[in-house]
Amino acid sequence: MRPLGCARSPRLAVGLGFRKAATADTLTDLARDALSRLPSDLAALPAVIATIAEKDRPPLREAASRLGLPVVILPKSALAGTEDRITVESEPARACLGIPSVAEAAALAAAGPGARLVVARIAAADATCAVALWEPSPEAT
Predict the structure, then answer these.
(1) Secondary structure of residue 21 in the 3-state scheme
(2) Sign of the C-alpha dihedral, residues 128, 121, 117, 38?
(3) Measured between alpha carbons, how far is 87 from 101 in angstroms, rounded to an integer?
(4) Which pLDDT band, with edges at 50, 70 and 90, does 97 fall under?
(5) Beta pairing class for 127-134 and 11-18
(6) What is the arrangement of strands in the sheet containing 47-52, beginning at the earlier edge strand?
(7) Phi and psi (nearest 5°) for 87?
(8) Which helix (H) or strand (E) is 27 found in, with range?
(9) CA–CA distance from 23 to each of 58, 63, 69, 120, 125 (Å)?
(10) Whole-model pTM above 0.85?
(11) Residue 31 C-alpha from the chain's centroid
């Protein structure tokens, strides 16, 4: 996957994982909660909503529309290599999808290589959310 936006601009990715019962209201509220936890210097950065292909459902698209954010849908294979940066594991996610955390892994993968979590996984009844930040390396600026 090609990194989003300008190669020299920091960016955010809001990762979402959720059950089929999750509503657009739940996903919107959870993403807003996660974004509200960002330090003020990060709040204005460009962002996307990200998840895996298995979660590409109408509530996700509706939440992204409400938030005014583009959607990035990732194949599960794109989440490989994020395991060492995942902070909160989900047994149901691992059992069903073989991924330790859909929200954290999707955020990290969508933000770009070397991204780091700035909001670790938070949860609602039917959904989880995390935010990752990618920043250019000093030698790239």
Answers:
(1) coil
(2) positive
(3) 9
(4) confident
(5) antiparallel
(6) 71-74, 47-52, 11-18, 127-134, 116-123
(7) -105, -25
(8) helix 24-36
(9) 9, 9, 17, 21, 11
(10) yes
(11) 9
Residue 89, token pair as written in the block: 């594991």
What is the residue whose two structure tokens read 């996903």? Answer: 27
Can you give the length of the chain in residues? 141
Question: Which residues face 52 on adjacent strands?
Answer: 74
Under a CB-based contact definition with an 8 Å cutoff, are residues 71 and 64 in contact?
yes
pLDDT tens by residue, 5-46 = 445 688 999 999 999 999 999 999 999 999 999 999 998 899
Q: Which neighbouring-strand residues pair with 44? A: none
Cβ neighbours for 114, distance < 8 A, ≥ 6 positions apart = 134, 137
Report yes or no: 103 and 15 within 8 Å, Cβ to Cβ.
yes
CB 33 within 8 A of CB 129: yes
Are the C-beta atoms of residues 52 and 79 closer than 8 Å to each other? yes
Reading phi first (left if > 0) and then psi (alpha if -120 to 50, else beta), residue 53 is in: alpha
